[in-house]
Amino acid sequence: MEYNIALQFEDGVTGFIKCDDGETVAEAAYRQKFNIPVDCLDGACGTCRCHCESGSYDMDADLYIEDALSEDEAEEGFVLTCQMMPTSDCVIKVPSSSEACKVGKATFKGKLAAVTTLSESTIHFGIDVENPDALVFLPGQYVNVTIPNTDETRSYSFSSIPSAHQAEFVVRNIPNGKMSSFLSQNATIGQDIEFEGPFGSFYLRPVVRPTLFLAGGTGIAPFLSMLKSLEVSGAHHPINMVYGVTHDFDLVETQKLDEVKQNHPWFNYHSCVASEDSSHDKKGYVTHHIKDDWLNNGEVDIYLCGPLAMVDAVQNWLESNNIQPSNFYYEKFTPSEQ
């Protein structure tokens, strides 16, 4: 048995694939060169989360975790394409543009060009890519970087823009973490390093209304990429940001945010620190420091990148305050060693 699957991308393009009986949508899509967002293929990351507009399918809840897809989401018709097996023709809404999905997963080789300790909790590193013109991604997406001399990878969002000759990343320095130990103790400038991607449906869409960025910790990385891109393209609506961290030393890359704020009237931001011992003038969580006018009576697009607990807290805050933004895009992460 073969089923017709319509993939409706958010830029209005519809693609059609055929899915065999017992085949997942993700497998069928990749077989037919449609690179819909996917990463782990194990129902653990939630990257391939889509919405089934019509049709029937099998999807065993025992084969994926709730962090990837909650029970309520599943009841509303959301699916993980890495687990979804159609049992009829289906129409699936994919939360990505057709441009993103036509960018194939690829391995990029390069040389480690820079390693900088930004604070005791954060490291910046850059890779000179062998063929930078082939590195196509959308601001906000991530790649899986291979730890040199191992088969293990770590997922990091670009902090650089697609046109840059050096791929840059801002990452958490995890005590005894394998990548952290490599970067802080063993890395040598000029050594070979590679990464695979791009991945993810968290990326900057066209700015068509006021926009709010919420960053937690090293979740600042994709927003640096987005802001650098906006500096080139410009923005016709205000973009505001709240950047929250746990401790004062976690607050990094603020000079880059200051530069964007000084040079572009469409951008404003402030930062906050959760620790009670902080000397920062704004304490608490990001939700404590969102100005009412930044929400524009709900006519706002919200982008959120931060630890899992932060994402859950912001979602609960929006629900409890009956705030329904026009669009809410988020990326949540957990350190690999945890």
Lateral strand order in the biggest sheet: 11-10-13-8-9-12
Q: Give the termini distance in whole angstroms.
A: 42 Å
Radius of gyration: 20 Å
**CATH third-level topology of the largest domain:** Rossmann fold
Please provide the ordered H/E string of secondary-structure elements.
Answer: EEHEEHEEEHEEEEEHEEHEHEEHE
Major sheet: size, sense and barrel closure?
Answer: 6 strands, antiparallel
Content of β-strand:
25-35%
**Discrete helix count:** 7
Determine the CATH superfamily of the largest domain. Answer: Nucleotide-binding domain of ferredoxin-NADP reductase (FNR) module
Overall description:
The protein is of the alpha/beta class. It has 3 domains: 2-101, Beta-grasp domain (Ubiquitin-like (UB roll), Roll), CATH 3.10.20; 106-199, Elongation Factor Tu (Ef-tu), domain 3; 211-333, Nucleotide-binding domain of ferredoxin-NADP reductase (FNR) module (Rossmann fold, 3-Layer(aba) Sandwich). The chain has helices spanning 25-31, 71-75, 98-101, 178-186, 220-233, 254-263, 308-320; strands spanning 2-9, 14-20, 49-54, 57-58, 78-80, 85-86, 90-94, 106-119, 122-129, 142-146, 153-157, 166-172, 192-199, 211-216, 239-245, 267-273, 301-307, 327-333. The strands form 4 sheets. The protein has a 6-stranded antiparallel beta sheet. The protein has a 5-stranded mixed beta sheet with strand order 2-1-7-3-5. A 5-stranded parallel beta sheet has the order 16-15-14-17-18. The mean pLDDT is 92.
